[in-house]
Amino acid sequence: MPILKSSFFWFFCFTVIFLLSQDFWSWQQDISFSLLHLPPWVFYFIALQIILAVALLLFVLNFWETSSKEDR
User: Fold this and answer.
1) Domain segments of the chain as ranges
2) What transmembrane ranges does the database entry give (predicted)?
């Protein structure tokens, strides 16, 4: 996919992930517990980390050029 080779796409992608990690909308939220007796922000953080890991994997596989490919 040519969009995965674009530096603007990756800048936008990582900027969106960074902005989503700034938890501006629930600073005044009352403490409540949900699944497994954990606060909801824990699951939000886990989901963001999974999204970041997938984005980094795709970035490494599609955008970076390795020297081992050039040596072959």
Assistant:
1) 34-60
2) 42-64
Per-residue model confidence as pLDDT tens digits over 21-36? 987 766 676 777 777 8
Side chain identity, residue 25: W
Q: Retrieve residue 29's tokens.
A: 């939220």
CB neighbours (10 Å) of residue 37?
Answer: 6
CA dihedral over 57, 63, 67, 71, signed as positive or negative: positive
% residues pLDDT > 90 (the chain): 38
CB atoms within 10 A of CB 23: 12
What is the tally of helices (H) and strands (E) in the chain? 3, 0
28 phi and psi angles, rounded to 5 deg: -100, 15
State pTM to two decimals: 0.75
Asked if residues 29 and 22 have their Cβ atoms less than 8 Å apart, the reply is: no
